[in-house]
Description:
Elements: H1 2-14, E1 19-24, H2 28-39, H3 59-62, E2 68-75, H4 83-87, E3 94-95, H5 104-123, E4 128-131, H6 139-145, E5 150-151, E6 157-158, E7 166-173, H7 193-197, E8 203-205, E9 208-209, H8 215-221, H9 231-234, E10 237-239, H10 243-246, H11 273-277, H12 281-287, H13 297-311, H14 316-323, H15 331-348
Parallel strand pairs: 3-10
Antiparallel strand pairs: 1-2, 2-7, 4-7, 5-6, 8-9
Helix pairs in contact: 1-5, 13-15
Amino acid sequence: MQALVQQIKQWGTELGFQQIGITNTDLSHYEKRFATWLKKGLHGRMHYLEKHGDKRTQPEKLIPHSITIISARMDYLPPNTDAFFTLNNPRQGYISRYALGRDYHRLIRKRLQLLTDRIQNAIGTFGYRVFCDSAPVLEKAIAEKAGLGWIGKHTNLINAKAGSWFFLGEIYTDLPLPNDASTKQSHCGTCDACIQVCPTQAIIAPYLLDARRCISYLTIELREAIPVELRPLIGNRIYGCDDCQLVCPWNKFAKFTKEKDFYPRHDLSSPELIDLFSWTEEEFLAKTEGSAIRRIGYECWLRNIAVALGNAPFSDDIVEALQKRLHHPSALVREHVEWALQRLVTESGL
C-alpha cells in the first residue's frame, strides 16, 4: 500500500496536480468549530451549508464505506495579471483571479477521475467518489489533515512552499491507504496582514470569518441587495476579492499555473467597468460560458458593476452609463443604479 501511495502521488503530478495528500475520514477536530460557526449565523444566506446534517463532517455518512480521502491541490494563479494595477484603477473591474479562466470544477473532477482510472488499472475495481467543491465536503479541513497546508487566519489553506493560490479536490475511497502526516499547526505567527487589509473587516478574529461581510460572499453568494453600509467598501471588486491572499507573505512562494484553461479569457483581467456594464444578457452568457462567473447570473452581474461604478470618480460617461440602466426591469438592478448615481453626486460635491 505504501508503494501504491507513492505511485498515486506520481500519477497526480503527471495529471497536473502540484501535491497529493492522504488522510482518514475522522474530522471530529473540526466538527464543533464548524457547528459553532453555523450557529452564530456567520455563513449568512449560504443555507446549503446547513443541509445534509453531519455528512459534511463525517465523510463515511456521505459515502458509505469510505475510510480514506485522497486530497489534491492545483495551482490557479494566472501569469501576466497585475492584481494591484486593476485594484488601483477604479474605472476597471476586479475579478478574483480564480475566475478569470474556465470553471475549475469540471477540470479538476476530470483529472481526479483520470487518477482513479489509473489506480483501477493497477489494482482492480475499488469504491470511490470524486469531488471538487461539489458536495458537502469539508475541503480545507481534509487538506489540512492530509498535510497539504494549514488553515490560515483568513481561513484559506496555506502551503509553506506554494502559498494559497490553488484549488482543492478529493477522492473518497474504501482503499486502506497509509495516511500522510497532518499539518499540526498554523505558521501564521503574529502576522495579521490579512485581517488588517480586509476592506470590510470580514475577518472578525484570527481564523474566524464573518461571511456576511466578505466581498466574495456579497458579490457571488448573495442574491439580494448588498447592504448599503458595505457598498462603498467594495471598491471596484465586481466578482470576489483576493486582498487577503495578495498581502499574505507566504504567497511569495506561489507559482503561476501552467494550466492554460485558467488563463484569462475575454480580457477580464483588467476590464473597463463601463464596457462590462453595457453587456446585454446574451453577451454576458456568451462571454461567461464555461466560467465560474456565470453562476451569479446577469442581474447580480449588473448589481455588482453598478456598485463599482458608484465607487469610481465622478465622470460624465459613468453617469451616462448608469442612467441608461435606471429603468432596468430588475428592481435589484435599479436600486443599486440609483444608489450609485446618488453616491457619485454626493462624493463629487455637486
